[in-house]
Amino acid sequence: MSEYYTVLTHLGAQKVAAAIAGGPALELTDLVVGDGGGGHFYENHDREALKARSSLINQRWSGPLYLVDKDPQNPAWAITEGQVPVDVGGWYIREVGIQDRTGDLIAIGVYPETYKPVLAAQIGADLTLRSIIEVGDANTVTLKIDPSVVQATREWVNAQFAEKSSIAPQPHKLPIANADGMIDQRWLPGNNKQFDPAAVLVYVLNTESLTVEISFSSNVNALIDWGDGTSEQVNRDAVIPAHTYATPGTYRVRITGSAVKFSVGGYAGAERLTRVESWGVGLGLTSLSGCFRSLANNIKYLPSHIPLGVSDLAYFFHHNHHVPRAVEKMDVSNVTSFSGTFWNAKGFNWDISNWDVSNARSFSAMFRDGEAFNQDIGKWDVSSATNMSRMLQNTLIDQDLSQWDVSNVINFENFLLNTKFSTANYDKLLIGWSKLLLKPNASFHGGNAKYSAAAALARQKIITDFGWTITDGGLEE
Q: Which of 430, 423, 437 is nearest to 465 (CA)?
């Protein structure tokens, strides 16, 4: 029978020893799992060889730990727990690891061969993995966790409710980080939504890219913890602090203090940013304009919430060709400007049909030159919109927009220029909009879309009653 165990790596043992000797506590953050390269892993693995490793043999997934605790029966043992979510899988788990906040592999283990199905295969389950690590003194080990990514177990939730309420606990769906990069808002009993006051950015640097730059606009007074033991105070307007790391690795950059806006797109290290674990609700952000424009093409995780004070997502993913699917679940209900948000975001076509854009006034060039975009956004509440110029220019959009309330829009310049809008949907648009009290004298561009005889009267009504100038493909023959 195979032997299953978890051991400290050599580096992990060194860090534990340093903590016991009075150094800073060892902060554990992530669970990593792998398939060991195949079933032969069990025959070929060697305890001493595993201790020397700095990574798993074949890593399949990584995610945040939600528990690090001292074993009640043995104070020398640290217990860690993490959860592989339901929609991640399609492979076997044979090896596990625990990483600290710098990305170093602290412990590695041999795990009983377990197949992790994925939900798409019509069967799936969250898989909780527990490891027990002998560290000498578990008080020297702590859990370094972003409250926006913590996952509470059902047992813990039930225990908390049972302790604090006479009401029997009810089933709760606790969102988890999924394969598409969504880090959802977390609910914990009695605390509502918990968010890290610091912005947390995770960079994976290699020998070709060891410098990270972060741009701040005016009114910044922030402390940047670069994640390698060094920090920098920034209290100047319009500053771009840069930091060069000594070695490749995974670094969590934490920003605390106050800042109205920061961005990484187009600056050094942007292509090595892989996760945004928290936006930093304590920073007082009001804008994320241009945050990921250009080069920031490897982001896989984003928080679902946008801080309440943020109203500007202009050029958010401008010229970014790998927008993460995480944007589908983002709460953008407080945003007023989507100007150029996905402008020239080649390949972007995620389903954002459920976005609440009811407070947005500007949609100018929102999807311009996106080419691939064609999602059903016909149910959006755009009643606050005033500017839709070039919003859908150079996209594949062909949807029913007849239910849009565009009665406050005054700018439709090149709205559907170079699109393939069908006659059927263009007819619906003209007929639906002709029933609104539209702003006068607008110039509307319908691209090459043709209208049929069924919509001819509606089109003329808009021109006659509201003085619109309409450019389109003309009457369908």
A: 437
